[in-house]
Amino acid sequence: MIRGHGEEKNIKDMTVLVTGASRGIGAQIALRFASVGMNVVIHYMNSHEAANEIARSCIELGAKVYTVSADLRSKEQIDRMKEKLEARGLKPDILVNNAGISHYGLLSDTDEEQWDNVMAVNLKGVYLCSQTFMPYMIAQRFGRIINVSSVWGITGGSCEVVYSAAKGGVNAFTKALAKELAPSGVTVNAVAPGAVRTEMMDRFDPEELRQLEEEIPAGRLAAPEEISSLVYFLALPESGYITGQIISPNGGWMT
Questions:
Q1: Taking the model in full, what pTM does it have?
Q2: Average pLDDT of the chain?
Q3: Any idea which architecture 2-247 has in CATH?
Q4: Residue 246's closest CA among 182, 163, 190, 195?
Q5: Is 163 designated active site?
Q6: Options 44, 66, 136, 163, the catalytic residue
Q7: Separation in Å, CA 36 to CA 21, 63, 166, 192
Q8: Its Gene Ontology biological processes (predicted)?
Q9: Domain ranges (residues) in the chain
């Protein structure tokens, strides 16, 4: 139960919006929330069929599900997404800013368009979605904003300067917004995973993956389910004293 305007609200009546939920970590996060019967909004940009497949899996778990497409680089499209949700009576109590794109390459080979695109999706999208959906959370004096960042946003990664800069911005955004929203009962945290076994790792061949696993004290990559469990924990009502934190599940790889 949570309290909003002095009233109790059951977790099954809560709504979670997960951006970039058609695959990878985002899909697992959607499934984790669906497992407790919440209203789950699956955002995607172009992967319509993949989003529908995850939606079907969420429905099988007993969740009420809605899929919605939007380009998170566009305030107009995010506003339209909000209108679509509200038309169905859906106002997110929990926002998981998961959508993101990677970029691998030397900074000297990175053009301005690539820089702008990575920043727009990974950082501007977090800003626009948070700004759009937090007023409802503030009004009911309860909410959770959870940003999916990266260990590279903490340590920096060679040949991932643009991505590291964007995720570092997400981390700073998280800490600052947490201070703004704490008096309103809204927490803001970031989960900054290390290496996770998702499609983003497809650029590595088997030998490179083996070498990477050897660098990690835990001896393996994370499963997406391990990240989604942490996100779910941060969303719980009883996690309300945790805010402004950048938590990095990375198997002891970076400390």
A1: 0.93
A2: 94
A3: 3-Layer(aba) Sandwich (3.40)
A4: 190
A5: yes
A6: 163
A7: 17, 7, 32, 24
A8: monocarboxylic acid metabolic process
A9: 2-247
